[in-house]
């Protein structure tokens, strides 16, 4: 899985996600951000992120459970993960 921040030096996280999707379309991608607007979030979804978390909502358990769920979905199974 790839965890990418929206705000990065150089190209932003959305541009990275687009590049990753071209080369590794099955790789689970989680984007996090503390500054993105609703329009930025829309760009992230359109680029192909599998999950989007606001940094203000991040807890270790939420991050771990989101990543585990993404990996399970990509592997074709369902998984219930509790933080």
How would you describe what is shown here?
This protein has one domain: Response regulator (Rossmann fold), CATH 3.40.50.2300. Strands 1-2-3 form a 3-stranded parallel sheet, sandwiched between helices. Helix 2 links the parallel strand 2 (29-33) and strand 3. It is built from 3 helices and 3 strands. It is of the alpha/beta class. It has helices spanning 13-23, 38-47, 60-74, and strands at residues 2-5, 29-33, 51-54.
Note the overall shape: globular
CATH architectural label: 3-Layer(aba) Sandwich
Main CATH class:
Alpha Beta
Instruction: Give the number of domains.
Output: 1
Number of helices: 3
CATH fold group: Rossmann fold
Largest beta-sheet characterization? 3 strands, parallel
Order of helices and strands: EHEHEH
Round the Cα radius of gyration to an integer and report it: 13 Å
Distance between the termini: 18 Å
Q: Would you tell me the structural class of the helices and strands? A: alpha/beta
Low-confidence parts, pLDDT < 50 over ≥5 residues?
78-83
Proportion in helices: 40-55%
Mean pLDDT: 82
How many beta-strand elements?
A: 3
CATH H-level superfamily title: Response regulator
- The fraction of residues in strands falls at 15-25%
Layout of helices and strands:
Layout: E1 2-5, H1 13-23, E2 29-33, H2 38-47, E3 51-54, H3 60-74
Parallel strand pairs: 1-2, 2-3
């Amino acid at each position: 899985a790839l965890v990418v921040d929206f705000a990065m030096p150089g190209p932003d996280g959305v541009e990275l996600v687009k590049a990753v999707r071209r080369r590794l379309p099955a790789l689970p991608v989680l984007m996090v951000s503390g500054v993105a607007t609703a329009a930025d979030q829309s760009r992230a979804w359109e680029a192909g992120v599998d999950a989007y978390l606001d940094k203000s909502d991040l807890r270790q358990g939420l991050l771990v459970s989101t990543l585990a769920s993404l990996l399970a979905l990509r592997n074709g199974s369902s998984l219930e993960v509790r933080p």
